[in-house]
Write a structure and sequence with these properties.
With 210 residues, the chain is α+β, with helices and mostly antiparallel strands. It is 34% helix and 17% strand. A hairpin with a 5-residue loop joins strand 7 and strand 8. It starts with 5 loop residues before the first strand and ends in an 8-residue tail after the last strand.
Amino acid sequence: MHGDQLVPIPIESLTALQQLYRRDWPQHEIVYNWLQNYIDWLWIDRKLKHFSAFSLNDTWLENGTFVIQDGYQLFFHTLEHTNNTLTRALNLVDWDYSWKISGYYPWHRSSVLQTIELHRLQLQYDFCTEIWYLSKEKALKFDVTIPHNLQCDALTTKDAVKANSLWPYRTNGSEFLLKRLAQWNPSVGLFDKATGEMVAWCFRLQSGAH
């Protein structure tokens, strides 16, 4: 729409934006976790590199619509029953840049498809991600005995470099992402006790999922 613009959401307003997503809990739990992740990261580094949050025409308080750019990743959501504001916001993103769109909800797919058609974008890959929930009570019943020759330890940035080199979806910016996840989010690796070699890893993503 003529006159539309993406307006930066102040860092100080992210908590207020997050609180909007307590509505109909836990329907928007993933989005709530996204925002909590960035609130936490901004406490660590006020000048968070490659991070920006926008709303359409500064209307985030009215409809919860936001677009977050984090390196090569793009996150977005809206509380509107229609996708009108979200679609208009996505149309204003700089699509000359290659984005990895992560974790959007199925009912927002029409906005994504309209944006792809309007800007004649080329898809590198497109698939559905399923996130499963497990209660703490059930998780505690699992047998998590580790084989005697292996041990768990926190991931380091060095481990992130190796994980990225083996990741089939690695791209420009993915190593930086994994390093930051290793540094700032609880992430764990499985290591050979004798050699110290990492044999498996699990990063906690911005959504809180592993």
